[in-house]
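Q: A reviewer asked whether we had any structural model of the full assembly, not just the individual parts. We don't, so I'm hoping you can provide one. Inputs are below.
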Amino acid sequence: MTNILGRVEQHLFKESDLSVNAVQKAVEALNHYQQDYADIFLQEVVMEYWQLEDGLVKDASFNLNKGLGIRSIDGEKTGFAYANQFEQTALDNALTAAASISRAGQSKTVNYNQTIRDSSLYLPEKTLGDVEPSHKIALLRQLDAKARQLDDKVKQVIVSLSAADEHMMVAGIDGTLAADIRPMIRLNVTVVAEHESRRERGSAGMGGRYNWNHLINLELEQLAEQAVKQALINLEAVEAPAGTMPVVLGNGWPGVLLHEAVGHGLEGDFNRKGSSAYANRLGEKVASELCTVVDDGTLQNQRGSLNVDDEGTLTQSNVLIENGVLKGYMQDKHNAHLMGQAPTGNGRRESYAHLPMPRMTNTLMMSGQSEPEEIIRSVKKGIYAPNFAGGQVDITSGNFVFSASEAYLIEDGKLTAPIKGATLAGNGPEVLKHVSMVGNDSQLDPGIGICGKDGQSVPVCVGQPTLKVDQLTVGGTQSG
Amino acid sequence: MSPVENKQLTLNQIAKQQSTTSDLMQAIADSVLSEATRLGAEQAEVWSYNTIGNSLEVRNGLLETLEFNQDSHLGINVYFKQRKGTVSINDLTESAALKGLEAACSIARYTEPDPYAGLVAADRMATEFKDLSLDHPFDLSLEEMLQVAQNAESSALKHNHIKQSEGANFYSHRSLSSYANSHGFRGLNQTTRYSLSNVLIGETDKGMLRDGYYTLGRDFSDLLQPERVGQMAADRIEKKLTQGSCRSGQFPVVFSPEVARGLWSHLLGALKGGALYQRSSFMLDKLGEQILPSSISIVEEPFLLKGLGSANYDSDGVATQQRTIVNGGVLDGYFLSGYSARRLGMETTGNAGGIHNITIESAKQSLDSILKELGTGLLVTEVMGQGVNIVTGNYSRGASGFWFENGEIQHYVQEITIAGNLEQMLQSIVAIGDDVDRRSSILTGSVALEKMTIAA
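A: Here is a predicted structure for the entire assembly that you could use as a starting point for your response.
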């Protein structure tokens, strides 16, 4: 990992008058101002996208985004400016603008201490390497053919492949100096199935911080199978029930529950401002003792993983809830400092043009003791939801929702009819207290999560075992 | 001492600075298009934009964040015998643009011929460029902008029922955007945008709750007074302090204008060409059918002065048009780009890149009289989650709002769900309010539905 900084320097500045040395000098210039913290973040993201529709790969695009962002923090005050050029003048102008919230003061030296992870969590190599476009196109065609061959009700297939290569470096007045090369790949299949007058969509995706060679060794045709299965099941779906009832959530992606019900509420910024329903509740019981939830940015090849966060802090595994008790928040440098806590490696930003905030990485609940079948058997009347379209939370009231895209009725301990997509609603600090059974099958989602906060999107992972919530509001149309 | 040392430009000064940027955009477009021809592309098109401005946030009277924004974008499409290559970069320099062009051309060597690809016919390009009054640079300093945000927040914090402010935010931006294609079309738009918002937190014995209010517009002088924004935000919290429960079952539901425009946007989304040719719309094959009660019409109005969605041409360069989408409840037209129109065997409607201003026309009545007529039900003021399926029209979302009985608002209710099917919901609209919210490109009042399923 030691040569990463050198590689990033060479890559970012190959046609520019900047260097790591010039960035370090600029940080020292920033340090003349009276402030608590200041840093410079430089980033380039190259994206490639291939899409098949109607059996043709007719859309392909290439996207390049690069720039530098400078922030200066004084107490609760932050100044921020950015530029889309790697040039000394752009750096100087952004520096003056960002520091305009602070007063000039004494010159202070900065002693740099490079942050290095001993062994990288992902290969610091180009995601698609030098793979011939014809191979990418062949893969998309293969999945299209597979989906169409599975059932003649399948009328539309869209398959897409995207890859992003990020080079980043960050330097701060506390001596922070870090760089990372981050690959990201994503493969998606969406189908529309039609039968008589009904139409339904099904989709499946997978991805993570790995490259093409890793991808093609995975079981990829199952994406087409899952997407088709979901569409066909929904073609048969009956109206969903309405009301409060037991809900069994499948393992993996239904971990969206944790992301919304607890994750956001434990981000440091909301707790510093006292605007989270979880503020000042460290040490309190906020979930049933069956629940242990961690946010772990160090999982190999996972979509939410980072060697260092966007502030140059090593990511780590943070216990959020242990046996039902609230243990800790997720922090960036700014909020950690104001709350007298340590940064937890959760300082993330969408790009150089956005300010870092405390964000989740891979958030998951640990396995419990129950067999998944036993959990379903225990429900007399309720629903089982193995797949979701996403969720949303109001962190102040704690109210959250997440929307099932595939769900079934449970009647007398057995899965019966598939039901139409329904929104499940609950209150964060309440809902985990109603978790009465936790399965032994915890797993992460296949690498499809995108988390939005204050207009900034970052890739994340969620995960959980099969679990039962004794009461959740199910938003169907069949009341009574 | 002044919290901000004012080194930054006012929007008026930015506008002067941007005049060189617009020359640069035109020059880049010309050179990319002529180079594309030289490289053998039959057709090519170039978009670019540049936005400059600032945004600041005040919390508890003090400056919390000050951001200087400066974003650029350049996009290129090239067409070689119906094969398309696309590139986008965030760099507005000629050398980067030409490198981007090369990448686009190399992508087009690998994509497959699409019989529907290519520019819209030259005779459909816009030729008339009306002044839509979208550009209003002002001379407010950062210091004064800070004052605007502080005034909003301090007027809200005067109220005892407010626990704390989550911040008052003010932003001002000026954008240049240009579109040019190998037909010789050249278009340039200059627009400004201002917004002031304030989010507050209140507390009851059941916990905390948040709400806020905002004002936005093309012209700073059209924004609501800061004190009014703070007052409105505080009023909204106050109304929520009386909390109560909600009945489950089927009841009349009224969507406030902010939520109602979401309802309309689901319908409009289902009428877009992309959703139609992908057969991913609950409005498939509905042209000429009654999709709304006969009292309601929907009109697209691209030429509203100062309109948030106003434009003379779409992102294909095609002239926009004032037209009726739904006439007396009957579906009269879709929203098509050049591409989706060809796919459907129809004509473009000037909607590449999106829908321009939408006005919902109908007999309007006051919200009070609507609630009186409905008697008992739910007034929805917020919805949550992604539970809208545009393919089937299946609708199931988290909601909060106010329970009303005998036409009178009783109390605030939250943590509930509302469900129905969009096709039926739209057919069952019984009234539209006169409380039109103008802070959006969809102009609608409250919308009352005969009934939805509520779960609490």
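A: Points you may want to mention in the reply: The CA atoms of residues 218 and 390 of chain A lie 25 Å apart. Chain A is about 20% helix and 40% strand.
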